[in-house]
Design brief:
77% of the residues lie in helices and 0% in strands. The protein has 91 residues and is an all-alpha fold.
Length: 91
Amino acid sequence: MYDAFPVAREDLQLSLLVSLAGGTLGGVAAAVVSNPADATITEMKKAKSKRGPIEVAKSLLEEGGPSRLFAGLSLRMVFYSLIVALQVWCY
């Protein structure tokens, strides 16, 4: 991001803004990538059965399609973005 905004290397406030934007984008990416696994694990805990994660993921896909694996994504995107952006800002 600093290559896109080279002025941010010299301005402290702009540098902080670039760091927060990078953290936010990183949080969004982390939420999108991890959401199918989170949905699968959540379903496994709800069902309390001996089925493995692959079987549960297949059943989720059969029941609701890919959207079922991405249930709750918007909330996770906000949560992860906030956490990662705050961590980057603190660092």
